[in-house]
Give the backbone structure.
Amino acid sequence: MQITSHSSNISRGDSRALLSDARYLTIHGMMQRILGLSFCGSRIGLFISAYLLCGAVASEELLIAVASNFSEPMAELAKRFEAQTGHNIKVAYGSSGRLFAQIRSGAPFQVFLSADQDKPARLADLGLADSASRFTYASGELVLWSADSSREVSDSNALLSPDVHRIALANPRLAPYGTAAAEALDELGLFAKLSGKIVQGENIAQTFQFVESGNAQLGFVARSQVLTLTEIRAGATWVVPDHLYRPIRQDAVLLNRAIGCQVCSEFLGFLREDAQLALISASGYRVD
């Protein structure tokens, strides 16, 4: 995911100050005008000014960096949060490694939903995230998937089929699900044997596309991705035993630039609500 910024002759600090001043002058002027009106001696003027003031500042925009594997549930969670709070959410999807690099480079994200625990922890160690805010919002499951429903994919023997020419997995350096796939292949003693057939996607979404398009006969993807498919497109799946790879615990964290942001804290609390945990579970994740 590439973040594009537009430069100007005003520094970031100056632009924020100007925006705050403009907001203050607009609201202050509105209140002065309303309070100057006569409403038969009543306090309705104060009521109206308070109402307009709340409307002017209540709606905020939240910018969240989200691991690609979580795109389907995140889309629904964003809709729910916006409907529930009136705030707007913008989401940038990508591999956890790529998002991590962008955050280190100053990308203006406020909340990070990674596909692992390592990268949020490292951001906290670097002084870029609030360690006290970090928690596991989901635990993922790895599956071996073929878009061809007639293919036999009941265990790891599917990887050895002579008509399998390409096996897709996400880049282990960037994507936790790719790391898990590499670990599983190592545990099965197949990584070296199959290395010539492996193709890597930058993230789990691209890996899924390799298989869905038929460019790869098999691929290691997230169980949550397969659950979103209709019966016609479901293909064939083997759930990789979880003892073959380290748990894929996915952590959320508040980034330092957003400390003190009330709507950011509201969103992190929202993720822990029972209704949202039920949605995450139904999307193919474990919730603890």
